[in-house]
Amino acid sequence: MTPLLELVDVRKKFGAVEALRGVSFALAPGEVLALLGDNGAGKSTLMKTITGIHRASAGRILFAGADLASHDPGQIRALGVEMIYQDLALARQQDVASNIFLGREPTRRFLGLPLHVIDRARIEREAEAMIRRLGARVPSVRYRVGDLSGGQQQSVAIARALTFAPKLVIMDEPTAALAVREVEHVLELVRELKRQGIAVILISHRLTDVFAVCDRAIVLRQGRTVADERVAETSMNTIVAHIVGAG
Amino acid sequence: MVPSEAGAVAAPRRGLSWRDLGGAIRLESLVVLVLLCLALSLLSPYFLSVANALNILLATSVIGILGFASTFVIASAGIDLSLGSVLGFGGVVGALAVNVLGLPWPFGIVLGLAAGAFCGLINGLLVALAGIPAFIVTLGMLGVARGAALVLTGGQPIYGLPAPLVWLGQGRPFGVPVPAILFLALAAVTHFLLSRTRFGKYALVIGDNENAARATGIHVARLRIGLYTLSGLLAGLAGLLFAARVNSGDPTAGISYELTAITAAILGGSNLFGGRASVVGTLIGALIMGVLQNGLNLLAVSSFYQQMAIGSVLVLAVWLDQWNRSRGRA
Prior knowledge:
Chain A contains eight helices and twelve strands. Chain A is α/β, with parallel strands linked by helices and 247 residues long. The radius of gyration of chain A is 19 Å and the shape is globular. Chain A starts with a strand and ends with a helix. Chain A has a domain at 5-80 and 165-244: Rossmann fold. The model of chain A has no long low-confidence stretch (mean pLDDT 91). Chain B is an all-alpha fold. Chain B has helices at residues 27-43, 50-75, 83-99, 105-128, 134-153, 163-170, 178-196, 198-208, 210-215, 220-246, 257-267, 279-298, 303-329, and strands spanning 158-159, 248-249.
């Protein structure tokens, strides 16, 4: 099977600091991959390099046959890569519907003129449908996101990532700020994505989450991949040893 | 998909706002404007008349247009302190083109607008690409554009514009001053741009959370350049109107107008720190100041007191807004 995502010797320098020193791995469609590592190991940098926020200094990132190096974040999203950021990346003064369609607002001609206005009715309709499909308890898509609870805000971020039929969803610490019950919902969501054939990269510090839903785990240390193991064939102790560098 | 019981359903109370006019309109502003008009109608027999209403619109038009310009920049969490100077520069360039270079009057308009847009473009490039804070960049442009206007004219106003240009400032088709018509028409156009198009939506989003804008694929730098260019263009237009009204390109026109323009936007409910802004709100804010000034003139109150009144109204409006919002959140 051809991989959905393939990284070949990806490097990233910020000035003299080398945050990524050659990361290579491949991800199959529908595969759930855990990306592990201590703080500063390069996890977030790596993900932001995939989504186009950062540009790789060297190496290649291939997604569904396209070289992502020449794409900007909007184009990479259009190819089917979505990321749910740890800080959720929401516009708090905009309402729920606007946030779900951020960067992808459908437009229509205004009064038949060559003037394109945002199709507000369609956005609200489709956002409403998405929220209902997710079963998220957001009272109305017209509420400002800043007025919602933390869990509700996360639902909005998730809805945004899933509305446009992604092929790969990257989640950065999706369970870090959640209560136990909410964590279970996020994990169930990951399983559901897998069932639909959508690949997931999960960044998490919680190894129990990783062992509950992931197929494979990659460990980064000082910008390098130091382990790439099937979750079913390893143990938490081994993974921890890789993370702290005792392996 | 998966049911996610994310958080309890707490129905947050909305602050007072008038959603259908593009959101972000501080209802208090409208209430203040109406109360102000009512009070002045009772206090002065001259206030409530069509002629006086047109006077107010005429007197507010230049500041109002600058207010629209500042609304876009403030929406994106930026600031444009160069508006007043760019107004002066645009007016001078327009006047020079027709008066000294002898070009036909349409060139005066085009060059005046281009001069404003050019200043805005430089602002935008420096803010978006060089990453210099907008406050510094536009403070620099405040000096540069004013200096350029003075250099081009030798510090002297350029008197005498062709009749069609003067008409723009002084004409009264059907008794309505041309600047008042342009002011209201521009309000409609810019309101449409800010509230209905992607350009306007993205201006608000980069002011709200720049990282979210970038992560969702919005071209932040390109948009910023566009916003400051638009701001300069509108300032250039305001400069031409100003010049047309006084029939001269005055290099000292519009000194400190940027602060009045920003005041209009804030009075109208825009958030100085970005993410919330409305052109109709700014229109109301500008009218509050215009009505206040006009009313106090009719009541023969010294203009020194007018400045105090406008300053107080500004602080009061923002305080009311904060109080209302914190109550909504509790």
